[in-house]
Design goal:
Chain A is of the alpha/beta class and about 650 residues long. Helix content of chain A is about 60%, strand content about 15%. In chain A, α11 links the parallel β11 and β12. Helices cover about 70% and strands about 0% of the residues of chain B. Classes of the chains: A alpha/beta (about 650), B mainly alpha (about 60).
């Protein structure tokens, strides 16, 4: 016996005010029946409900807020509790469930707060209590262990509800196989989806490869653009640095340039003065030369003057000769002398010779006169030259020339010094003097603006690169998935195949187990039924339908219809079913039956009492003296573990449980 | 009905469907351990791991 109640304790539960305890004692071999007597209304069903609530916190027809003892609530006690000590698989369990309610004017209000405690071998469990309880007694199965005899008739209906069927399967240990079947089906569906996805990924490999290559090309292009932009940016930055340095230098060189320009202006002035002195000195040198020719000029002038004077005298003679010539010509023409006598030949020849001589003289005089004219011009010029020379002569003082030469020399030294300084400063300025500072700053501003524009372009290009990299990564991931898909497909296909095979095993196992357990239940319940039924000559066995609904089969093989059965017979079938179910499972929880013989006649009751000791579990019968007359109790003495009585204190209006010695 | 019968059925079906008995036992044990739990999260993944392990697949 793997599950045995040692003690049940109720506190302020329904008709039990204060504490009421039912002690069963340790299991005893062959004595598995405990009878708790109680009259109607004394608290048998209250005890059954307490056990039902204790394990899973629920009852078939009540809410916990209706379970508080009326007197306790009136007395202000707001907590009730049910506890059980039991042995399960050799370990001592102590399970306590409490409910605490709010009380107002002697009434329970709102929903009570429930707590549960579990100790295993005196060790208090801190977590997972509900799961542990469910492991001991699945909540779906509770109905087959703790039940009201009048309620079990539902198990003798034509069909079971899904809930009942599930509960039956739970008792039979089918759910884990069914869960495995469901989980494997779910897993196979998942794997099929995964396989299909892998197939899609695999087929997408080629497209993805091409897309990846395109993405790489695109990425390289934008990276190249970015590199170029950065290179340009670097160059621009260098230009700006240089420009800024140059601008700074030019700013500093402005005073130098101004001074240099002043030096050049001074040099130009100096050179102008030097040119003037040079011209003046040239003039002096000419004067010196002229002085050398001055005496010669004077002599020439004198000669010319003599010739002029001579020519002037010749001119007088020429005039005289002209007059003589004219006179002789008149004489010759008149052919008479002044004295009136005619000219003879001799006279005429004389005159003609004289005329020839005069004409020769006249011609000579004329030539001389012409020469005198030239000399006169020359004399005029010479005189002019003489006056100039005399002027220059005055100027060409050696002291003046010496001073001029000294001044020129000083000016030349000044010019050389200026030239040296200019050269030095030009070298220092290194061509900066010609630069336009304003233009430099304008260019610098433009370059800086270009730099800002380029920064924006670089930023855009960087974003493009990131975008392209992301796209490439996505393609790479997809490609990796596709590659993995190729590798994974085999594994998934293999896993799927095993899953499908395992699913088939689980599915068939359910069918086989159900059939096996159905056969076992049929066998056990038939055995019980044969002991209990009062129609042993007619009824052969009980068979179960697909949904575990039991059906009587007669010896002639006829299936009895439900409506042909009496209430008692239905109750017997139901009990047989529960007993068969209990014997077919390893749960082995105690059977706690409230008024189990409600509709049974004596024959059935005796049959049932004959069957109960044969069950491999503790049986607690909550009975009235009508269900189980006390005089029949000795018949059960061989299998009776103990007797308890629910007694009623009518004055105090409360029930208590007493152990009655046998 | 005893465990021997269940074991026989299991072996017979596993042989029929060419599934490892050990794998089925392991999966049933897993299902049994979580059957009473309120939440059965991750069971499918654990079953898959068991199957893959039985195939010699290591992650």
């Amino acid at each position: 016996m793997s599950f045995h109640f040692l003690r049940l304790t109720l506190r302020d539960w329904l008709v039990y005010e204060g504490e009421a305890s039912a002690s069963f004692g340790p299991p005893r071999d062959g004595r598995n029946i405990w009878v708790i007597y109680g009259l109607n209304g004394y608290g048998k069903t209250s005890l059954l409900r307490a056990i039902q609530w204790l394990f899973h916190g629920r009852m078939p027809d009540r809410h916990i807020r209706t379970c508080f003892n009326h007197h306790a609530v009136q007395a202000g006690r707001s907590e009730l509790s049910v506890s059980a000590e039991f042995i399960y698989n050799g370990q001592h369990y102590h399970l306590i469930r409490r409910a605490e309610a709010s009380i107002n004017n002697g009434e329970v209000i709102g929903y009570p707060r429930e707590t549960v405690e579990l100790a295993v071998d005196q060790e208090v469990q801190q977590a997972g209590i509900a799961d542990k309880i469910d492991q001991i007694l699945p909540k779906e199965c509770q109905q087959f262990f703790f039940f009201d005899g009048l309620e079990i008739e539902k198990y003798a209906t034509d069909t079971h509800t899904d809930e009942t069927q599930e509960a039956i399967e739970t008792v039979l240990g089918i759910p884990e196989v069914r869960n495995l079947c469901d989980d494997l089906e779910k897993l196979s569906n998942d794997l099929e989806r995964e396989r299909d996805q892998l197939l899609r990924d695999q087929s997408a490999y080629q497209d993805l490869s091409e897309q990846k290559e395109e993405a790489k090309v695109q990425l390289d292009a934008v990276k190249e653009t970015l590199r170029n932009l950065k290179s340009q940016y670097g160059n621009l930055q260098e230009q700006i640095d240089r420009l800024e340095e140059r601008a700074s230098t030019l700013k500093q060189a402005e005073d130098e340039i101004s001074y240099l320009r002043d030096l050049r202006r001074r040099k130009e002035e100096l050179e102008e003065r030097l040119d003037n002195y040079e011209a003046e000195l040239q003039g002096y040198l000419k004067v010196v030369a002229q002085r050398l020719v001055l005496s010669l000029l004077k002599e020439q002038l004198n000669q010319l003057q003599t010739q002029v004077n001579k020519a002037e005298r010749t001119s007088e003679r020429l005039a005289h000769a002209k007059a003589q010539t004219e006179f002789i010509k008149e004489l010759l023409n008149d052919a008479s002398c002044v004295c009136g006598r005619e000219l003879d030949k001799e006279a005429r020849r004389f005159l003609e010779r004289r005329l020839e001589e005069l004409e020769d003289q006249l011609a000579t005089s004329r030539r001389l006169q012409e020469r005198v004219g030239s000399c006169t011009v020359a004399v005029t010029e010479l005189k002019d030259l003489e006056s100039r020379i005399r002027y220059i002569e005055g100027l060409a003082d050696p002291d003046v020339i010496q001073r001029a030469l000294l001044t020129k020399y000083k000016l030349q030294i000044d010019r050389e010094e200026l030239e040296q300084e200019i050269a030095m400063r030009e070298k220092k300025l290194e061509g900066n003097e010609d630069a336009d500072v304003g233009q430099v700053f304008t260019t610098l501003g433009e370059k800086k603006q270009n730099l800002i524009d380029m920064e924006s372009r670089i930023k855009s290009a960087e974003e493009e690169v990131k975008k392209a990299e992301r796209f490439l990564d996505e393609r790479q991931d997809a490609l990796n998935r596709a590659v993995r898909a190729i590798d994974d497909k085999r594994r998934v296909v293999d896993t799927l195949q095993v899953t499908l095979d395992a699913h088939a095993v689980a599915r068939e196992m359910i069918e086989r187990l159900l059939q096996l357990r159905r056969d076992a239940i049929e066998r056990h319940m038939t055995n019980v039924f044969r002991m209990v039924t009062n129609k042993k000559q007619e009824y052969d066995r009980i068979e179960l339908a697909e949904d575990f609904a039991p059906c009587i089969v007669t010896h002639s093989g006829q299936m009895m219809k439900r409506n042909e059965l009496s209430a008692g017979e239905k109750e017997v079938i139901a009990f047989s079913f529960i007993a068969g179910l209990n014997q077919s499972t390893q749960t082995n929880a105690p059977l706690v039956m409230d008024t189990p013989f409600g509709h049974l006649d004596v024959s059935h009751r005796n049959g049932l009492l004959e069957a109960l000791p044969k069950l491999p579990c503790q049986v607690v019968l909550l009975a009235t003296d009508r269900d189980l007359p006390e005089e029949e109790l000795p018949n059960l003495s061989y299998c009776l573990g103990g007797r308890l009585d629910i007694v009623r204190d009518e004055i105090g209006e409360k029930s208590r449980i007493e152990t009655t010695p046998m | 009905m005893d465990d021997r019968q269940v074991e026989d059925i299991l072996q017979e079906l596993c042989q029929e469907h060419n599934v490892s008995v050990e794998l089925m036992r392991e999966m049933l044990k897993e299902e049994r351990s979580v059957r009473h739990l309120q939440k059965r999260r991750g069971v499918t993944e654990r079953l898959r791991t068991m199957i893959e392990k039985s195939l010699g697949v290591t992650e």
